[in-house]
Amino acid sequence: MAEASSSATYVLVTGGAGFIGSHTVLELLKQGYKVVVVDNLCNSSDIPLRRVEELGGLKDNSIPFHKVDLGDLEGLRGVFRQYKFSSVIHFAALKAVGESVRKPLNYYRNNITGTLNLLDVMIEFDVKNIVFSSSATVYKADPEGKPLREDSPLGCTNPYGRTKLYMESIIRDVTDAEHGWNAIMLRYFNPTGAHVSGRMGEDPKQIPNNLMPYVSQVAVGKLKEVHVFGTDYNTRDGTGVRDYIHVMDLAEAHVAALKRLPDNHGYEVFNLGSGTGQSVLEMIDAMSVACGHKIPYVNDPRRPGDVATVICNPDKAAGELGFKVSRDLKSMCEDLWRWQENNPNGFTQE
Ligand code: NAD
Ligand code: WQD
């Protein structure tokens, strides 16, 4: 592991070995930031960091990485003793909605306790800037499918979503209580895609819960057919409509948020999405074009808890963060396919 020089300041990325975290680490390095990653690897491995090093033209094992669980307060303190951090990007969390319904305490313990420990240590070491991975799941879905704004009504239907809502509130309280703190909540809509190189992407450990990793695993022949959950929604083709965003657009948005933190705006919330929606069938079609063959699907009943349409109003991020998505549906699907085709078994083939 690389040793930190005492004068340099670092960005701490929790969950930096995961899907969105690893793509963000690559973008941070590209933009000249020094990064330290903390991850317990419960839903990842260190291979994505090796790929980041490869794509960033760095030596193997040159990204400082600490296999620490955020539940381990002393372990976290040890990391903060070793580096001077300017800010933290906090991705580390459990994220499977269905699992959170079955094992709510695991979700509250991991996500909330981890965040409490992180905030404690940040206060202790006088680190006052945080970017937090939040989610569109914190919104009460609009019954008419109107684009959601940052001030749209909140309300969650599952424990995972509630951990996000509570973590936002906890961070807000700390920002109010502590002098000089700045916090940016980024509410992602539906992240997908992969790095354009085909060397990095999402690598679900189990059968994917989310649509696009499922579709790409059908496309590559690992799964038989896509199950379309509901064809009787009040949408243009009856299937659910979502706002998909390319993971590299998300990565760039995190860097934009990081750059804004020193402007001292206190606590802020931004949506990250495109502002447009695609149906399940449109996503399957777009992936079929990208992979060059028809992706089989069957129609199934609605998935409990799902709603017809979830789309973001991206105006605040455009106006205040200067962030707009720059990658379209075609490149999302082409990049996802390149990753899936070149790495049918994810990162495990090395
Ligand atoms: P991911 O599972 O790929 O990455 C999360 C990383 O955090 C993993 O590497 C995991 O090992 C690590 N981790 C989890 N608990 C930890 C702990 N206690 N200590 C240390 N490390 C821990 O997930 P992702 O898709 O990259 O999501 C990143 C963040 O974005 C999460 O907070 C997630 O809730 C949020 N988010 C994701 C989506 C999505 O659809 N992917 C949408 C909205 C928000
Ligand atoms: C998208 C559409 C499904 C799978 C979830 C979380 C949310 C956030 C993003 C973390 C819906 C349909 C899906 C499948 C299908 N994650 N679908 N067959 O539900 O919008 O959001 O991920 O914060 O919190 O809830 O995303 O990808 O699961 O579903 O037909 O096998 O695809 O019904 O219409 P969702 P998704």
Q: How would you explain this protein's 3D organization?
A:
The chain has 350 residues and is an alpha/beta fold. It has one domain (10-342): Rossmann fold. Helix content is 38%, strand content 17%. It has eleven helices and 14 strands. The strands form four sheets. Strands 3-2-1-4-5-6-11 form a seven-stranded parallel sheet, sandwiched between helices. The radius of gyration is 19 Å and the shape is globular. The two termini are 20 Å apart. Residues 1-6 have low confidence and may be disordered.
Uncertain segments: 1-6
From the 3D structure, determine the CATH topology: Rossmann fold
- Give the tally of β-strands: 14
Mean pLDDT: 96
| Global morphology | globular
Ligand types: nicotinamide-adenine-dinucleotide, UDP-4-deoxy-4-formamido-beta-L-arabinopyranose
CATH hierarchy, class: Alpha Beta
* Major sheet: arrangement of strands: 3-2-1-4-5-6-11
Largest sheet: 7 strands, parallel
- Structural class category: alpha/beta
Q: Order of helices and strands, N to C? A: EHEHEHEHHEHEEHEEEHEEHEEHH
Supply the CATH superfamily name: NAD(P)-binding Rossmann-like Domain
> Into how many domains do the coordinates divide?
1
Keywords: Carbohydrate metabolism, Isomerase, NAD
Pfam families: GDP_Man_Dehyd
Subunit structure: Homodimer.
Cofactor: NAD(+)
Short description:
By secondary structure, the protein is α/β, with parallel strands linked by helices. It has helices at 19-30, 47-55, 73-82, 97-102, 104-124, 159-177, 211-219, 247-260, 280-291, 315-321, 329-342; strands at residues 9-14, 35-38, 65-66, 84-90, 129-135, 182-188, 190-192, 226-229, 241-242, 244-246, 267-272, 278-279, 297-300, 309-310. The chain has a seven-stranded parallel β-sheet, with helices on both faces. A three-stranded mixed β-sheet has the order 12-9-14.
